[in-house]
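YM 10:42: Tetraspanin-7 sequence, as discussed on the call
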Amino acid sequence: YAMLLSLIFLIVLVAAVVGFVFRHEIKTNFESNLNLALRDYNVTADRHSEAVDTIQRTLHCCGVQNYSDWERTEYFTQRGIPRSCCKSQDDCSTEDLKDLSKAKLKVFVDGCFFLVTSTMESKMSVVAGISFGIACFQLVGIILACCLSQYITNNQYEMV
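YM 10:58: structure's back
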């Protein structure tokens, strides 16, 4: 049991170190994937398009760096900026969303990349605290399992 807990503890430790070391690559990959999702955004609502819509609605953002990122997409030429960028769903018309100057007043202008990464970084202290607490319980479990094993082997040859 102590060996199993030690193995799990080492795996979690390695995952934390790798995540910390490669955090810049994770950000870069996220940004490129978000750009790809915007480029491939479509009306058929595949899971990437739904993810973009969810991010934009939840964080009140639009595009990767800002709302004008949509101008370079095929979706914009057909329908304009998606409705998930609208500040108010009732006040967004299709004509407004096709014109960037009008859309600026109707949609969120901040980009999603900065908001997602800053939200993740602000929550990292909570994740680190929870992980540290779990690691402490694992270490206590390892120590107690070793003590129990030692107690069993010491008392094995005792006369009754």
